[in-house]
Amino acid sequence: MKIFNYPSANAEKRLSDIVHRGLGYTKKQLQYVTGILEDVQKNGDQAVLAYTNRFDSPKVTLENLKVSKAELDSAEKSVNRKFLAAMNRSATQIKGFHTQQARNSWINTDRPGTLLGQVIRPVETVGVYVPGATGGKTPLVSSVLMGAIPAVIAGVKNIILVTPPRQDGTIDPHLLAAAKKVGVTSVFKTGSAWAIAALAYGTDLIPKADVIVGPGNLYVTLAKKILSGTVGIDMIAGPSEILILADSSANPEFIAADLLSQAEHAPDASSVLLTDDPLLAAATAKALERQLEALDRKDVAEQSLNKFGAIIVTPDIEVAVELANRIAPEHLELHVKEPFELLGSIRNAGAVFLGEYTPEPVGDYIAGPNHVLPTAGTARFASALSVDNFIKKISILHYSKAAFEKEARDIMLLAGAEGLGAHANSIRVRLKK
To answer: Among 71, 264, 302, 330, which one carries the catalytic annotation?
Structure first.
């Protein structure tokens, strides 16, 4: 991976490419996804089944599109006990973290004659999308836990999971074991944009969701983007990314391994090292070359590093921190001697991993915080998936007659300034009584 010195024109160009890469798609891709959504809205389960048969498995039928209780029970029995133990630990720790996010309703009566407050209510139905690649080849068990557990804590009654089936028409048993563990209501063997459409519009078999969450490929993301507003969504997520901020105390082998952990996701993933130590930069570049050769997904990682990877040497750590805030990465690792001293300077990041023994995969799988995080610079204004994504905050208001009369003329003045006479009259008619 190329080393850049900052400030310089070359470093600035690479930073700009990384910061602005966003969610790349063509007009043709957008039209294609729009066509799928319209097809599912019009033809329901028949359209869902046709796409599923074409792209994932010809063995899925309307009769087995929904995973049966027998399939769920069988899956739990078939998976390795060590896997179940690891999954249970992960689920327990994810639940513990997200329980702290639970909100309570509140009421305030400080002003005489008034009662103001906020009532917290969960949405009724949530759709959790779990990627699996074509034919369900890469089942993301962690996405089941991260999507469903906060919804359960929020009090959601119906949690619908959709995921691509394997070629033989089944779902990977590890996914089903996780779904059963966290209380998913029902699982459907379908993926991609047509699964998102089914959740947004509802079909005879697949319930209509109020909120859809979970990561996915470009077609899933475009479907969520188009349907945002028709249904609540967690975020418009772009390609995965990691930024590591390191000083001379850091281990280049650790850094290289962590950069590759994101580069292997996709050719448009981004892996960046910011450091004030030129020797560490050089050592990391060599470590990357060595480790890349042994990687199963070498081709994907190599494309990612060439397109959106960078090792940038800055004059000092303070400049590196400012660049990190500018990039606003999904994952930010602090490989510095005193990471907690830098934490107060971090303004923009999806999640911050402090110290060399807290690599990004710890957050992906088991630590507890959610791994569905804002990408492509949206950490400037967005947050990780949380219990808040599954609740509604309903305002409540009550005025006594005396409290109303005390503020009535101010309301009429404000309404009059806006030229809204009927608003003012709504107040005026009550003053006449």
So the answer is: 330
pLDDT of residue 260: 97
pLDDT digits (tens, 9 = 90+) for 369-378: 999 999 989 9
**Do 3-22+238-368 and 27-233 share a fold?**
yes
Q: With beta carbons less than 8 A apart as the criterion, state whether 387 and 29 touch.
A: no
Contacts of 361 (CB under 8 A, 6+ apart): 261
Residue among 331, 335, 356, 360 flagged as catalytic: 331
pTM of the entire predicted model: 0.94
What residues does 396 pair with on adjacent strands?
117
What CATH architecture is 3-22+238-368? 3-Layer(aba) Sandwich (3.40)
The whole-angstrom separation of Cα 116 and Cα 403 is 12
Closest CA to 237 of 268, 219, 215, 213: 215
* Class level of CATH domain 27-233: alpha beta
Does residue 331 carry a catalytic annotation? yes
Give the whole-angstrom CA distance, residue 313 versus residue 316: 8
Mean pLDDT of 391-400: 98
Q: How far apart are CA 280 and CA 252, in angstroms?
A: 6
* Per-residue confidence (pLDDT) for residue 135, from 0 to 100: 63
Strand partners, 276: none
| Stretch 413-431: mean pLDDT | 97
pLDDT tens, 10-69?
999 999 999 888 777 899 999 999 999 999 999 999 999 999 999 999 999 999 999 999
Q: Biggest alpha carbon distance in the chain?
A: 84
* CA–CA gap between residue 334 and residue 244 (Å, rounded): 6
* Cα(294)–Cα(278) distance, integer angstroms: 25
Task: Confirm whether 330 is a catalytic residue.
Answer: yes
Question: How far apart, in whole angstroms, are the C-alpha atoms of residue 371 and residue 361?
Answer: 9
